């Protein structure tokens, strides 16, 4: 997903291996400590963030896929256990199970990295879900074997508890961790924008008050609202907090999902799977919304910009006028309709490929000279329009002449040929209010079209305005040759 691996936060760098090693050791120890603080029994944690966090770290930074970095993480786990527990050799197997999840998950995501970098797709969220499933199952197998010796429970209950815990934390943590990054735009707080989060908080409170198995799904509509309104990173963060909070509330009995029966590990297993399944839904919705928005932007871009010349299309020009009405309203406008002289001869003598190249180069030259004073659009064929803000008609004619002379003196290269182009310009002027900007532009464009016709009748390579004043009388040769 684009949003997965989406930004350049760089706590790790390929050229700083010592710093990388220290960071891995510190992160492993920190999240091991956080998980240990939430242990239900001696070796089983209510919420174990370590494995998902470290899998996300190794997945984000491909250069960390080295055996010595994995070994440093494993040694940090063993060191923490040696100081805080009396597990002995069982710690080797239990922490090996943690490394199984980390390495398996990192490898799975690494295989899909190129796909996830391209764009956010719902299928990638589903793949992440299935990768967590497989990694959690492998981790649970070794974890249950290691836990049998230090716990009174049998292998199968331990397998279920290990699997449920690893799977739920993986689904909750990994989407947000992979999508984490610096905001691309400044953050602006507004109470109205917090309503989806308020709805999540209210739904969690309702889960506590009402109880029952169905109460775990109460936050889902609010989370989907978050997915529609917020970015993938923020949606993932809200989902993580909500899911983690529900797990804690269920384990502490605040959310009583089995009102008529005592709480036990199978109930916790069921609750965790339900929460994990719920957590992936807003992630899928979020990446779906982002994919749709990306498609809309692409369609809009194709509609608003001319693919060949990279300037506005006719429809895009109207969108620009409406969108940037503050830029053009209440100002003096000069509308210049431009036509490349004898363009047909270029296609006839050099081919349409050359003609396309000339159109693109011409548009870029006009845009370069115009700068921030206005916008350029291709109206069709070899006809372009410039809408510029000017002080008065005199400045408008001066700008039109500047554009005309820039084209006339600029050599256009085509293979071994140098083409000299000229352009005829019809110009009109006016001033309007924002509410009638489009109507005024249409009127000015019609006048410019008439003046362009006059420029062609007078021999081309000249500018004609509404007063029939001519800024230049240079007649254009047929554009060709070296």
TrEMBL record:
**By its UniProt entry, which Pfam families does this protein fall under?**
GGDEF (PF00990)
Q: Does the keyword Transmembrane helix apply?
A: yes
The prosthetic group or cofactor this protein requires is: Mg(2+)
Q: What is its EC number?
A: 2.7.7.65
Q: Which Gene3D superfamilies match?
A: 3.30.70.270
| Record domain GGDEF: where | 331-468
Q: Where are the transmembrane segments?
A: 21-40, 46-63, 93-111, 131-150, 162-182, 194-218, 230-250, 271-289
Task: Give the organism, scientific name.
Answer: Kosakonia calanthes
What's the name of the protein? diguanylate cyclase
Q: Which UniProt keywords are listed?
A: GTP-binding, Membrane, Nucleotide-binding, Nucleotidyltransferase, Transferase, Transmembrane, Transmembrane helix
Any idea which GO molecular function terms this record carries?
diguanylate cyclase activity
Q: Which pathway, per its entry?
A: Purine metabolism; 3',5'-cyclic di-GMP biosynthesis
Instruction: State the source organism's domain of life.
Output: Bacteria
Q: Where is this region: Disordered?
A: 457-482
Catalysed reaction per UniProt? 2 GTP = 3',3'-c-di-GMP + 2 diphosphate
